[in-house]
Specification:
three-stranded antiparallel sheet, single chain, 3 strands, globular, Alpha-Beta Plaits, alpha+beta
Length: 73
């Protein structure tokens, strides 16, 4: 089993949902981890983004290309 590592930060839930759709279609293993700690609230989101995506490192380049297409970056 591949070990997951942090691949990229996500800015919002919309990005996360769209990326999730594409990764499922392509059968790429992933995990989306929202950064939501009730103790810090929106301060944590402003500093660290909405959350992050983790996946096996062998999929990193493909995921970054998909993310760039989704966000237009």
């Amino acid at each position: 089993m591949d070990q997951f590592e942090k691949i990229l930060d996500l800015n919002n839930e919309f990005e996360a949902e769209r990326l999730e759709e594409v990764l499922k279609e392509k059968n790429i293993p992933y995990g989306i981890v929202p950064v939501s700690d009730s103790a810090f609230g929106s301060i944590e989101i402003l500093e660290n983004g909405w959350g992050y995506l983790e996946a096996p490192s062998r999929f990193k380049n493909e995921i970054l290309e998909i993310y760039a297409e989704i966000t237009g970056e």
